[in-house]
Amino acid sequence: MSIWRRKPLNQLLEEASESEKGLKKTLSASGLVALGVGAIIGAGLFSITGLAAATNAGPAITISFLVAAFGCIFAGLCYAEFSSMIPVAGSAYTYSFATMGEFIAWVIGWDLVLEYAVGAATVSISWSRYLGKFLHGYGIDLPDNFMLSPFEGGIINVPAVLIVMVMSLILMRGTKESAFVNGIIVLLKVSVVLTFIAVGWQYIRPENYHPYIPENTGDFGAFGFSGIIRAAAIVFFAYIGFDAVSTAAQEAKNPKRDMPIGILLSLAICTVLYILFAHVMTGVVNYQAFAGKDGIAPVAVAVEAMGHADASGMITPAYPWLNNAILLAILGGYASVILVMLMGQSRVFFSMSKDGLMPKVFSEVHSKFRTPAKNNMLFMVLVSLFAAFVPARVVGEMTSIGTLFAFILVCIGVLIMRKKMPEAPRAFRTPLVPLVPILGIFVCLFMMVFLPLDTWIRLIVWMMIGFDLYLFYGMKNSILNQGSFSLQNYKTVAGSGFGMVLALIVVAFVHHSIATEDDSSLFYFSLIFAALHAMIYAYSFKKVR
């Protein structure tokens, strides 16, 4: 058997039929648009936007949102075709399994686990900062030592850990949000954005827009053109969730007509709202105010500046009630986002375990709650560690690079699917193939290139750990390949691992040569990690021969 063996389309459709029980076709184009707007407007807008403006794009963060939207449009159309063909859980992992085979499915599945896990950590860190701002409004100040990671001058981010634990425990018990509650949360999120824009518009100070595109500092990605593109890659996190539209294809009344409408119109609406939001945010207060620990909670910073200054220059908020009302709505919405992200990564891990690519313990279902509780427990610990000790910038950028990588593979998958299975039934066909998928690949890869090199190092290290697991466990326990061993398969995976080793060394040296701050720890860790894996691959390859 081959690691390139694809999971048959009819088998996937049977799984969909068994698990979905024939979902009713109830969603119209307007319903899909509403679903898309609710899914897209999430934590990214209220968390990463401030940091990206402060350190990368300045007021031109509005242009960054537009660039990021283009990547989403192309990838979204590719997602729509897949979801209309393969309406089954697993998202890009499942799509890759059907088009590019088991090995690539493993790669994308492992990448999705990273995306969801660090995404949940990012949101929990931002939730912690907003909680601090909310309590401050009532005269309660939490100590910074227990609100920040060690890399940000603190000890441990306790609130971030607690919210991850609470949401994980809810998932373990199987508590399910009703459609009514979901609707209320969506309404809250959209209301926060509209209220922020409407109220903040009257307090815009034109001088905060000058210069609109700050001059590059001399460092790549620090303002100027490179800063705008890097910010686009970073705020890409704010668009996570648009693929929820594509996954609803089985419930669309007329998917061939309504899917592109749902995707494109919801993206257009959210992009306009994002641009207006960022325009008000950087107009009310100078973008430099979002630097540091408060950058992860930009709405709170901006709302505090919505007022008139007295003779001493002190600003008294014109709507003191608005700040806490908005913060409370954001805290509630964030809790929902964390829950969904934790559920997403556990379900991908669950699917990989069901396919034999991960230990069976992660697809075991709790006898009482009927949930993958052990799976949830593992990621409660993992995400809590990220939330407690890793800076928000790092986890936010890791989420973006993981998402961009997933979108690239989905776009490649459409190209392969059109060639390998041209006659397979499609309720929706991506237009202008191969142009649209190629543009999706180019735009997403273009944004990835502009992300900091230390983010690339972390992605490569994570993928190498995934290669280890597949090489020494997944490949031998695959249900599709019945655990059969092939020297050629081993050569392919080990060879790919050696390629990752080389890439890690090159990126580490380049980053070390251009770093403006001391990166000795990351540099030497990368070299030791690469050397260790080179020896492991060489030894194990010699042994199997």
From TrEMBL:
<feature type="transmembrane region" description="Helical">
    <location>
        <begin position="521"/>
        <end position="539"/>
    </location>
</feature>
<feature type="transmembrane region" description="Helical">
    <location>
        <begin position="377"/>
        <end position="395"/>
    </location>
</feature>
<feature type="transmembrane region" description="Helical">
    <location>
        <begin position="221"/>
        <end position="242"/>
    </location>
</feature>
<feature type="transmembrane region" description="Helical">
    <location>
        <begin position="321"/>
        <end position="344"/>
    </location>
</feature>
<dbReference type="GO" id="GO:0015171">
    <property type="term" value="F:amino acid transmembrane transporter activity"/>
</dbReference>
<keyword id="KW-0812">Transmembrane</keyword>
<keyword id="KW-0813">Transport</keyword>
<dbReference type="InterPro" id="IPR002293">
    <property type="entry name" value="AA/rel_permease1"/>
</dbReference>
<feature type="transmembrane region" description="Helical">
    <location>
        <begin position="31"/>
        <end position="54"/>
    </location>
</feature>
<dbReference type="GO" id="GO:0016020">
    <property type="term" value="C:membrane"/>
</dbReference>
<feature type="transmembrane region" description="Helical">
    <location>
        <begin position="60"/>
        <end position="82"/>
    </location>
</feature>
<feature type="transmembrane region" description="Helical">
    <location>
        <begin position="493"/>
        <end position="515"/>
    </location>
</feature>
<feature type="transmembrane region" description="Helical">
    <location>
        <begin position="401"/>
        <end position="418"/>
    </location>
</feature>
<keyword id="KW-0472">Membrane</keyword>
<feature type="transmembrane region" description="Helical">
    <location>
        <begin position="430"/>
        <end position="450"/>
    </location>
</feature>
<dbReference type="Pfam" id="PF13520">
    <property type="entry name" value="AA_permease_2"/>
</dbReference>
<feature type="transmembrane region" description="Helical">
    <location>
        <begin position="456"/>
        <end position="473"/>
    </location>
</feature>
<feature type="transmembrane region" description="Helical">
    <location>
        <begin position="179"/>
        <end position="201"/>
    </location>
</feature>
<feature type="transmembrane region" description="Helical">
    <location>
        <begin position="147"/>
        <end position="172"/>
    </location>
</feature>
<feature type="transmembrane region" description="Helical">
    <location>
        <begin position="263"/>
        <end position="285"/>
    </location>
</feature>
<protein>
    <submittedName>
        <fullName>Amino acid permease</fullName>
    </submittedName>
</protein>
<keyword id="KW-1133">Transmembrane helix</keyword>
